[in-house]
C-alpha cells in the first residue's frame, strides 16, 4: 500500500540532509519504491544540473548502499519587450529634401525617438540577456532612418551599431 513517509531535514557537516524512516522492522526480501518531491531554491548558480547523493542505511547491514541522482536544472523566465515611438506618427512633406553636409538635426528630418523596455515576468531571475534590435536605416539606397544616438538605463550596456551618427549631426 501507499504510505506517507516521515522525513526530517537537518544539516550534517555543512551538507543539507533529509532523513526518512522507511519502516522498522522490515521483512526479509521486502522491496519498496519511494517517490520523493523535493523543492530546492537558490539554483541560479548551480550550472546545468544538481546531484543528490542517496544513502540507504540498515541496522542489519554493516555498510550503507550509496547512489546518486543527477537532475538537470532549467531556469524559466518569461521576457516581454515593449516599444514606443515618439511621436507615434511622422509625415515628411513630399517636397522635403535633406541638406547634404549639414550638422543641424532639423536639416536631416524630423526627430523620432524609439523607446524599448525589456521586462522579466518571472518566475526566475535573469542575467546575461542579449537583445538585438534590427533597425532599417536605408530603403532603396536612400536613408530611411538616420541613427543619431543610443542610450540605456538600469545598468545595461549597449554596443553602438555601425554607422551610428555617421555625419556627426
Automatic annotation (TrEMBL):
Q: Name one GO molecular function term.
A: integrin binding
- Which domain of life, per UniProt? Eukaryota
Q: Where in the cell is it found?
A: Membrane
A Pfam family hit? Integrin_A_Ig_2
Topology term for the membrane: Single-pass type I membrane protein
Tell me if Membrane is a UniProt keyword of this record: yes
Q: Mind telling me which SUPFAM superfamilies this protein's record contains?
A: Integrin domains (SSF69179)
The Integrin alpha third immunoglobulin-like domain covers 80-166
Recorded protein name is ITA2B protein
Arranged from A to Z, the UniProt key words for this protein are: Glycoprotein, Integrin, Membrane
Ranges for the Integrin alpha second immunoglobulin-like domain? 3-73
